[in-house]
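#structure-requests
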Amino acid sequence: MTNNEKINSFSLSTLIIALSGAPFWGILTSFMIYKSKTATLLSMLIGFILSLILSFIFLKFFDSYPNLLGSEKLKKAFGKLSYIMNAIFGLLAILIYIFLTYRLATFLSSQYLTRTSNIYIYTLIIFITSYTASKKMETLTRVSVISFFLSIIIFSFDFFALVSDIELDNFLPFITVSTKSIITSSLYFTLYFTVPVFFGMCYKKNNLVDKEKFKKYYYSMLTLSFIILFIFISTTIGIYGINLTDLFDYPLYTVLKRIRIFSFLESLENISSIIWVLYTINAGSIMLCITFDNLQAAYNLNNKKSKILNSILILIAFIFPLIFYKNNNYIETYGYVKFPLIITSVLLVLIIISTIVVSIKYKKNKEN
């Protein structure tokens, strides 16, 4: 990362939309609906409140040592132990990247390119995200801003095209599951919605030209991301009812098939599904860019060694699905959601510990 790289708070905050939203288009929505039925909406509200609490922790980490990357903050706080911690953070980041992007490849293969193996599509996604990540944050945030406005346009069009099909009776009875199921879904939502956002907090705060505005933009974008997901999921349940929605592997895509304009324009879901592609490509690019830059700083690598390490990480991302999903052309949602849950849980524990130690060290340094 170049020292003169400067972006504004709004641009960086648009990354939050992609990082928080990408998991729900293919990984988590079906599971939450299966787990908590119509009370999914309640689970989301509870999860969002928990996400706001976690956001306070993330922003605390972001505010500490504002002139350093996340990995450099760990070096300040943990010394030699940071080499191990940064390696763990890097590996977990690559695993989250795999779960997001491979799920998109599976979706495209099963819904559009049925005669094309998803590994070929996945290879293309890896190439696109790697190339975008190599252009660094300044370029990546420009792409993110364009994607943000395009996504808002698509979302608004979809909602106004579908809202008349919603039947309020489909939301009743509102609670048909146990409190345990609601709490479980809430925790799942919190982990998937919030933990990926942390990687955006590993950027240098001092590289923002208007860093004092970032906190406001952060909460605004996180809230907007939640509103988009909440409306999409409630619209799906309101149109199909919970029993039918529970049968869909891609409920947020399936509901788009109901869109028709002037009674003769159909199959518009192919255009509307671009929002998932944008979310996932941007989220994957962000994950790679932040991981590459932070690992280079963590181990003081020159450009040549950094490119070698980046190539190894990309190779891991490519090989992992071949080993673990070689017998599955289509990954079942409920099995697919478990391993990422472990990854995000471990990440959250590491994030909390790191934030506490980094904040304490930073406060002591300021006092001295």
